[in-house]
Specification:
Length: 99
């Protein structure tokens, strides 16, 4: 009976630590290996950009061309939502130039 419990615990712990590809946490772990503080900051930053992109997508929901552009940027740069944000906002849509 004890062996079964140990085996089940080993299987559960193995599955909980498996990294999923195309994930914000996996991206941040690869960008900041061994630095938990920067990984945490990176995850928070990327999730903020993800939330912002969801908000912008809601705002332009009826404008099909803008929605497709947002979706294209997200698909091209997923899971790095900061890159998706830069793709959408720096591609001439909201580009403000001072010079």
């Amino acid at each position: 009976m004890a062996r079964i419990v140990v085996l089940l615990l080993a299987l559960l712990s193995f599955n909980s630590y498996a990294e999923t590809p195309n994930n914000i946490a996996t991206l941040c772990k690869s960008q900041w290996p061994g630095n938990k503080g920067m990984q945490t900051f990176c995850i928070k930053e990327k999730r903020n950009y993800q939330d912002w992109m969801k908000y912008v997508r809601k705002r332009v929901y009826r404008d099909v061309s803008e929605r497709e552009k947002i979706d294209e940027c997200i698909l091209d740069h997923k899971p790095d939502y900061r890159e998706a944000y830069d793709c959408y906002f720096n591609d001439g849509v909201f580009n403000i130039s001072f010079f």
